[in-house]
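Follow-up to my post from last week.
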Amino acid sequence: GENVEQHPSTLSVQEGDSAVIKCTYSDSASNYFPWYKQELGKRPQLIIDIRSNVGEKKDQRIAVTLNKTAKHFSLHITETQPEDSAVYFCAASIRGGGADGLTFGKGTHLIIQP
Amino acid sequence: NAGVTQTPKFQVLKTGQSMTLQCAQDMNHEYMSWYRQDPGMGLRLIHYSVGAGITDQGEVPNGYNVSRSTTEDFPLRLLSAAPSQTSVYFCASSYSLSVGEKLFFGSGTQLSVL
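User reply:
Got it. Predicted complex:
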Protein backbone atom coordinates (compact mmCIF):
# COMPACT_ATOMS: atom_id res chain seq x y z
CA GLY A 1 0.00 0.00 0.00
CA GLU A 2 0.85 3.66 -0.03
CA ASN A 3 3.34 5.08 2.48
CA VAL A 4 3.62 8.80 3.22
CA GLU A 5 6.61 10.26 5.05
CA GLN A 6 6.40 13.80 6.46
CA HIS A 7 9.17 16.09 7.72
CA PRO A 8 9.90 17.76 10.01
CA SER A 9 7.85 16.53 12.95
CA THR A 10 8.19 19.94 14.65
CA LEU A 11 8.89 23.28 13.00
CA SER A 12 9.38 26.54 14.87
CA VAL A 13 9.53 29.80 12.90
CA GLN A 14 9.42 33.48 13.74
CA GLU A 15 6.20 35.31 13.02
CA GLY A 16 6.38 36.76 9.52
CA ASP A 17 8.87 34.18 8.25
CA SER A 18 8.04 31.34 5.85
CA ALA A 19 7.46 27.70 6.76
CA VAL A 20 7.96 24.68 4.53
CA ILE A 21 6.73 21.15 5.27
CA LYS A 22 7.76 18.28 3.03
CA CYS A 23 6.19 14.91 2.24
CA THR A 24 7.20 11.95 0.13
CA TYR A 25 4.98 9.14 -1.09
CA SER A 26 5.76 5.65 -2.30
CA ASP A 27 3.12 4.72 -4.87
CA SER A 28 3.53 6.39 -8.25
CA ALA A 29 -0.19 5.74 -8.89
CA SER A 30 -1.21 8.30 -6.25
CA ASN A 31 -2.94 11.22 -7.91
CA TYR A 32 -4.44 13.41 -5.18
CA PHE A 33 -2.53 15.19 -2.40
CA PRO A 34 -4.44 17.22 0.21
CA TRP A 35 -3.10 19.11 3.21
CA TYR A 36 -5.00 19.33 6.49
CA LYS A 37 -4.64 21.67 9.45
CA GLN A 38 -5.63 20.48 12.90
CA GLU A 39 -5.82 22.75 15.90
CA LEU A 40 -5.64 21.26 19.36
CA GLY A 41 -8.78 19.27 20.18
CA LYS A 42 -10.38 20.03 16.82
CA ARG A 43 -11.10 18.10 13.66
CA PRO A 44 -8.75 18.15 10.64
CA GLN A 45 -9.64 20.87 8.16
CA LEU A 46 -8.65 20.82 4.48
CA ILE A 47 -6.54 23.88 3.65
CA ILE A 48 -5.30 23.13 0.15
CA ASP A 49 -4.98 20.21 -2.24
CA ILE A 50 -3.32 19.38 -5.53
CA ARG A 51 -3.90 16.80 -8.24
CA SER A 52 -1.17 14.90 -10.03
CA ASN A 53 -1.66 16.79 -13.30
CA VAL A 54 -0.73 20.11 -11.61
CA GLY A 55 2.73 21.16 -10.44
CA GLU A 56 1.82 24.02 -8.15
CA LYS A 57 -1.24 25.58 -6.55
CA LYS A 58 -1.52 28.74 -4.50
CA ASP A 59 -4.18 30.17 -2.22
CA GLN A 60 -3.22 33.50 -0.64
CA ARG A 61 -0.35 32.76 1.80
CA ILE A 62 -0.46 29.00 1.25
CA ALA A 63 1.00 27.10 -1.68
CA VAL A 64 1.62 23.46 -2.50
CA THR A 65 4.14 22.09 -4.99
CA LEU A 66 4.27 18.58 -6.44
CA ASN A 67 7.19 16.77 -8.05
CA LYS A 68 5.81 13.55 -9.53
CA THR A 69 9.18 12.32 -10.71
CA ALA A 70 10.69 12.53 -7.25
CA LYS A 71 7.37 11.59 -5.58
CA HIS A 72 7.37 14.45 -3.15
CA PHE A 73 5.15 17.42 -2.41
CA SER A 74 5.52 20.40 -0.11
CA LEU A 75 3.41 22.95 1.75
CA HIS A 76 4.64 26.52 1.82
CA ILE A 77 3.23 29.12 4.20
CA THR A 78 4.46 32.69 3.77
CA GLU A 79 4.20 35.62 6.20
CA THR A 80 3.32 33.28 9.05
CA GLN A 81 0.90 34.49 11.70
CA PRO A 82 0.11 33.23 15.24
CA GLU A 83 -3.09 31.58 13.98
CA ASP A 84 -0.99 29.36 11.72
CA SER A 85 0.18 27.46 14.81
CA ALA A 86 -1.29 23.95 14.50
CA VAL A 87 -0.48 20.42 13.39
CA TYR A 88 -0.37 19.99 9.62
CA PHE A 89 -0.91 16.67 7.86
CA CYS A 90 -0.18 15.74 4.28
CA ALA A 91 -2.02 12.86 2.62
CA ALA A 92 -2.09 10.89 -0.60
CA SER A 93 -4.73 8.87 -2.39
CA ILE A 94 -3.88 5.95 -4.64
CA ARG A 95 -6.98 5.52 -6.75
CA GLY A 96 -8.23 9.02 -6.40
CA GLY A 97 -11.06 10.52 -4.43
CA GLY A 98 -12.41 8.60 -1.48
CA ALA A 99 -12.54 5.19 -3.12
CA ASP A 100 -9.73 3.88 -0.97
CA GLY A 101 -9.35 6.54 1.68
CA LEU A 102 -6.38 8.78 2.33
CA THR A 103 -2.97 7.75 3.63
CA PHE A 104 -1.73 10.44 6.01
CA GLY A 105 1.72 11.51 7.07
CA LYS A 106 2.43 11.61 10.79
CA GLY A 107 2.03 15.35 11.05
CA THR A 108 4.13 18.47 11.60
CA HIS A 109 3.64 20.62 14.67
CA LEU A 110 4.13 24.19 13.44
CA ILE A 111 4.95 26.71 16.14
CA ILE A 112 4.90 30.41 15.32
CA GLN A 113 7.15 32.36 17.68
CA PRO A 114 6.05 35.97 18.36
CA ASN B 1 -27.04 20.96 7.43
CA ALA B 2 -25.39 19.57 10.53
CA GLY B 3 -22.58 18.02 8.47
CA VAL B 4 -20.91 14.94 9.97
CA THR B 5 -22.15 14.19 13.49
CA GLN B 6 -20.35 11.82 15.84
CA THR B 7 -21.55 10.54 19.19
CA PRO B 8 -20.45 10.24 21.90
CA LYS B 9 -17.67 12.85 22.22
CA PHE B 10 -16.01 11.01 25.09
CA GLN B 11 -16.21 7.41 26.27
CA VAL B 12 -14.44 5.30 28.86
CA LEU B 13 -14.63 1.51 28.58
CA LYS B 14 -13.26 -1.40 30.50
CA THR B 15 -11.29 -4.07 28.68
CA GLY B 16 -13.65 -6.55 27.07
CA GLN B 17 -16.66 -4.26 26.89
CA SER B 18 -18.37 -3.59 23.60
CA MET B 19 -19.72 -0.36 22.23
CA THR B 20 -20.75 1.41 19.04
CA LEU B 21 -19.47 4.78 17.89
CA GLN B 22 -22.14 6.56 15.91
CA CYS B 23 -21.61 8.59 12.76
CA ALA B 24 -24.29 10.31 10.71
CA GLN B 25 -24.16 12.76 7.83
CA ASP B 26 -27.01 14.76 6.32
CA MET B 27 -25.27 15.83 3.11
CA ASN B 28 -26.26 12.78 1.02
CA HIS B 29 -22.62 11.76 0.82
CA GLU B 30 -21.80 8.56 -0.97
CA TYR B 31 -18.51 7.85 0.75
CA MET B 32 -17.98 7.43 4.51
CA SER B 33 -14.98 6.29 6.50
CA TRP B 34 -13.51 5.87 9.97
CA TYR B 35 -10.01 6.94 11.03
CA ARG B 36 -8.20 6.63 14.30
CA GLN B 37 -5.64 9.19 15.46
CA ASP B 38 -2.88 8.31 17.88
CA PRO B 39 -0.13 10.67 19.08
CA GLY B 40 2.70 10.84 16.57
CA MET B 41 0.92 8.46 14.18
CA GLY B 42 -1.27 10.71 12.08
CA LEU B 43 -4.66 9.40 11.00
CA ARG B 44 -5.03 5.78 9.97
CA LEU B 45 -7.95 4.37 8.00
CA ILE B 46 -9.98 1.68 9.79
CA HIS B 47 -12.91 0.95 7.45
CA TYR B 48 -14.68 2.75 4.66
CA SER B 49 -17.86 2.52 2.60
CA VAL B 50 -18.51 3.64 -0.97
CA GLY B 51 -22.28 3.32 -0.63
CA ALA B 52 -25.11 1.70 1.29
CA GLY B 53 -24.49 -2.02 1.69
CA ILE B 54 -20.80 -1.78 0.69
CA THR B 55 -17.91 -1.70 3.15
CA ASP B 56 -14.21 -2.47 2.97
CA GLN B 57 -11.18 -2.63 5.23
CA GLY B 58 -8.60 0.06 5.58
CA GLU B 59 -5.12 0.00 7.07
CA VAL B 60 -6.03 -1.02 10.65
CA PRO B 61 -9.36 -2.94 10.63
CA ASN B 62 -8.67 -5.57 13.31
CA GLY B 63 -10.99 -5.34 16.31
CA TYR B 64 -13.57 -3.19 14.52
CA ASN B 65 -16.75 -3.94 12.59
CA VAL B 66 -18.84 -1.66 10.40
CA SER B 67 -22.05 -1.76 8.41
CA ARG B 68 -23.78 0.70 6.11
CA SER B 69 -27.51 0.00 6.00
CA THR B 70 -28.42 3.58 5.03
CA THR B 71 -26.65 6.37 3.16
CA GLU B 72 -26.71 8.56 6.27
CA ASP B 73 -25.26 6.27 8.96
CA PHE B 74 -21.96 4.46 9.35
CA PRO B 75 -21.51 3.05 12.89
CA LEU B 76 -18.21 1.62 14.13
CA ARG B 77 -18.44 -1.33 16.52
CA LEU B 78 -15.84 -2.47 19.02
CA LEU B 79 -16.79 -6.03 19.95
CA SER B 80 -14.30 -6.52 22.79
CA ALA B 81 -12.43 -3.35 23.66
CA ALA B 82 -8.69 -3.49 24.31
CA PRO B 83 -6.33 -0.83 25.75
CA SER B 84 -4.66 -0.62 22.31
CA GLN B 85 -7.92 0.84 21.01
CA THR B 86 -7.54 3.93 23.19
CA SER B 87 -7.52 6.68 20.58
CA VAL B 88 -9.41 9.55 19.02
CA TYR B 89 -11.79 8.35 16.33
CA PHE B 90 -12.87 10.48 13.40
CA CYS B 91 -15.64 9.76 10.96
CA ALA B 92 -15.34 11.39 7.53
CA SER B 93 -17.47 11.61 4.42
CA SER B 94 -17.37 12.94 0.89
CA TYR B 95 -20.03 13.56 -1.73
CA SER B 96 -18.63 11.26 -4.39
CA LEU B 97 -15.63 9.18 -5.36
CA SER B 98 -14.32 11.75 -7.80
CA VAL B 99 -10.68 12.75 -7.61
CA GLY B 100 -10.24 15.67 -5.27
CA GLU B 101 -13.64 15.39 -3.65
CA LYS B 102 -13.40 17.19 -0.31
CA LEU B 103 -13.40 14.98 2.79
CA PHE B 104 -15.49 16.32 5.69
CA PHE B 105 -14.54 15.21 9.19
CA GLY B 106 -16.73 14.86 12.25
CA SER B 107 -15.67 16.39 15.57
CA GLY B 108 -14.22 13.14 16.88
CA THR B 109 -14.78 10.65 19.71
CA GLN B 110 -12.14 10.34 22.41
CA LEU B 111 -12.12 6.74 23.61
CA SER B 112 -10.22 5.40 26.62
CA VAL B 113 -10.06 1.68 27.33
CA LEU B 114 -8.89 0.79 30.83
